[in-house]
Write a structure and sequence with these properties.
Structural class: mainly alpha
Distance between the termini: 37 Å
Oligomer: single chain
Number of strands: 0
Low-confidence stretches: 1-43
Order of helices and strands: HHHHHHH
Number of helices: 7
Shape: elongated
Largest sheet: none
């Protein structure tokens, strides 16, 4: 359990989820490790300036850590499934795609349900994770090319920019649509409970 420097006293009513969508990034993601019954997002909004800075750093660490973790897992999947593809290319590529889809869906779920990110922020974070993984794979391809002394070095260096773009941009669009749908379903479900 992380030690936080957030004041946990409640001074007034807690904001609604709709109010949270207008806050800045540090305040959107603060609720990931709040004690039971305490809304860390509301408390970050009320915290003093120095405490709000600490809260913002902890929030940044959470989403940035999830981006790096997802990128590293994508890299591990890409590097570990590649040698297995020799006997049965279709099966192992399909297995790598399924494993990557599980990471992708888990990252979306973490952004939406745990960090309560807006659809745009969730799309940005998940797309950034996919782009980090693609950059790692492009870097690994460059290293392998240098070790083997083969391959088109110019094209492999271009891949350092192109691979993250061709994975990150479609990931952003997909996650934006999925996150917007999840947010709409959450609002619909909470509206049904209130009726």
């Amino acid at each position: 359990m992380a030690i936080t420097m957030i004041s946990w006293s409640i001074n007034g009513p807690l904001p609604t989820r709709r109010d949270r969508s207008t806050w800045e990034l540090p305040l959107l993601l603060a609720s990931a490790q709040s004690p039971p019954g305490i809304d860390a997002v509301g408390e970050c909004a009320k915290a003093a300036s120095a405490q709000a800075t600490m809260c913002g750093m902890q929030i940044w660490y959470r989403w940035f850590g999830s981006v790096l973790l997802a990128g590293v897992v994508y890299l591990i999947i890409g590097l570990s499934f590649a040698p297995l593809a020799t006997p049965s290319v279709f099966f192992w590529r399909l297995a790598a795609w399924i494993a990557s889809a599980v990471v992708f869906a888990s990252h979306i779920g973490y952004e939406h349900f745990r960090l309560r990110s807006s659809p745009r922020l969730a799309a940005w974070h998940v797309a950034l994770g996919a782009a980090v993984g693609a950059f790692g794979l492009a870097a690994a391809a460059n290293v392998r090319s240098l070790q083997a002394g083969s391959g088109n070095v110019r094209l492999l260096r271009i891949a350092l920019l192109v691979w993250p773009a061709i994975t990150g941009i479609p990931a952003f669009v997909i996650v934006l649509a999925v996150s917007a749908l999840l947010a709409r379903l959450s609002r619909h479900r909470s509206g049904m409970r209130g009726a």
